[in-house]
Structure formats: C-alpha cells, structure tokens
Prior knowledge:
By secondary structure, this protein is an all-alpha fold.
Amino acid sequence: MIAGELDISIGSMIPAGSMIFAIITGYYGFPVWAGIATALLLGIIVGLINGVLVLKTSVPSLIVTLGTLFAVAGLTLSLSVFITGTTSVAVSVPPFVKAILKRVAFNLPRILRL
C-alpha cells in the first residue's frame, strides 16, 4: 500500500490473477492481452477495496488485507470450479512467447541453467 501500510492479500492475488488469466485465455480462448488486462483490472479493484476499507473503517490494514486474502482465495477456488468445472485450466502458449522464453533461457549464464 502506498501509505506504508501492510498488505498481505498479495498471497491470494497472485493465484487469482493467474486463474483469471487462465480462464480468459485457456478456457474462453481470448487473446493473451485480454487475459493480462483482466488480471490487472482484478488487482486494481481489490487494491481499491482494500484502500477504501482501511480509510473508511479505521481498521488496521493487516486485518483488512487478511480478510481480503481469505475472501479472494475462496472466490478464486469457488468461481474457477463454477465456471470451468475444475480447479485447473490448461493454457496453450502462443509460439511467439515460446520463442521469447527460449531466447531468454539460452542467453542466461551457464550456472543459472543448472
């Protein structure tokens, strides 16, 4: 958080963003940029909710973001099962992403590739 407060909801935002991306691109077949934009929008919305709750209720940010962590984790699991029928979604990687990652991986120093 910008005000120097503690935000622990990041622990559930990373899986939620990943699942949103996987559902948008892998399950529904939208382009990669749409999945990235949707995941970023989710992060903005949850961050806004955290900030408003901390400011308006005067509850410590640790407590607010702890509640948000559990809420987002529960929503991620339940919505992924509701939408896709499973807790995992397969995503096929476009060829340009494979080319970029291959170029990056083979340009790393040899010690990092072990």
